[in-house]
Amino acid sequence: MNMFKVKRIYDEYSDDDGIRILVDRLWPRGISKETAKLDYWFKNVAPSTELRKWFHHEPEKFQEFTLKYRNELNEHNPIEIQQLIELGKEHVVTLLYSAKDEEHNQAFVLIDYLQEKLKN
Question: In which domain of life is the source organism classified (predicted)?
Answer without folding.
Answer: Bacteria
